[in-house]
Structure to design on (271 residues):
């Protein structure tokens, strides 16, 4: 269902070729996408092959490199291909077959040289269109949420958060903000966490003050300039104004910083 939601925004008038990994791929999904006029290709897990005869094919594990076996469902035009490369891998598609069969160059550890290996068309198309998904998996694995738990749904929930932040970072790189404030993926994740903590975390307990932080570190722009729920109130202690840096007995309850009444609008970007 997640994949169907992702592709639901595609215009129906144009043909598309979608590529995804084995997290999504199933024979029923490929059949459904074909009925909607969408081409699809992806690696597929053995437990999702249903009654395909390749499910019980173990001979490829010891076969020579480049060996291929395939099966075609004529009712749905879904082809399943098992290929022996570095290891056995299974792919499925509703729009791409094995013809024409080409060749590709691979490094052989036994011969210590590059050799020519058989490559069906489905493998070539998959390799040429899978770069974005591979890069997304690489970015997610770099800073993956790790929390040991016995709840079966937790890895799926954590993965959706990791992937959403990765996609948000790619969109951020296309905005004008990237020009004057470039952030790598780790800095972007920290910035997102800091904004949510500012908006939704419980107020910190009073204690020994630490080193004063810069304005941009204490109050992110996403909070300071959102024009929502900023209230002017008395401060229980004397504090420095976040705008003019002079002492004040007033504060912004949301930003949790000292502020004068005449500095309030300037600090929150109100003209």
């Amino acid at each position: 269902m997640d994949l169907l939601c992702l592709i639901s925004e595609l215009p129906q008038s144009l043909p598309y070729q979608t590529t995804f990994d084995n997290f999504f791929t199933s024979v029923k999904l490929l059949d459904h996408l074909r009925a909607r006029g969408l081409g699809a290709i992806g690696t597929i897990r053995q437990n999702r092959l249903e009654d395909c005869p390749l499910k019980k094919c173990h001979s490829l594990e010891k076969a020579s490199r480049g060996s291929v076996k395939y099966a075609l469902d004529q009712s749905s035009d879904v082809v399943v291909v098992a290929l022996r490369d570095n290891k056995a891998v299974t792919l499925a598609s509703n729009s791409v077959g094995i013809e024409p069969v080409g060749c590709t160059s691979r490094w052989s550890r036994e011969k210590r040289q590059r050799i020519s290996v058989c490559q069906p068309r489905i493998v070539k198309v998959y390799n040429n269109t899978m770069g974005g998904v591979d890069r997304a998996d690489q970015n997610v694995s770099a800073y993956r949420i790790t929390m040991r738990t016995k709840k079966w749904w937790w890895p799926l929930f954590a993965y959706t958060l990791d992937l959403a932040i990765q996609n948000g970072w790619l969109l951020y790189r296309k905005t004008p903000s990237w020009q004057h404030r470039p952030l790598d993926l780790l800095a972007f994740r920290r910035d997102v966490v800091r904004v949510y903590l500012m908006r939704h975390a419980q107020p910190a307990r009073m204690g020994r003050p630490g080193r004063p932080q810069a304005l941009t570190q204490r109050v992110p722009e996403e909070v300071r300039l959102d024009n929502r729920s900023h209230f002017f109130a008395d401060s229980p202690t004397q504090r420095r104004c976040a705008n003019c840096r002079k002492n004040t007995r007033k504060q912004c309850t949301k930003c949790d910083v000292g502020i004068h009444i005449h500095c309030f609008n300037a600090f929150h970007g109100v003209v």
Observations:
- The mean pLDDT is 80.
- The chain has three domains: 2-129, 136-176+183-193, 213-267.
- Residues 31 and 70 are 17 Å apart (CA to CA).
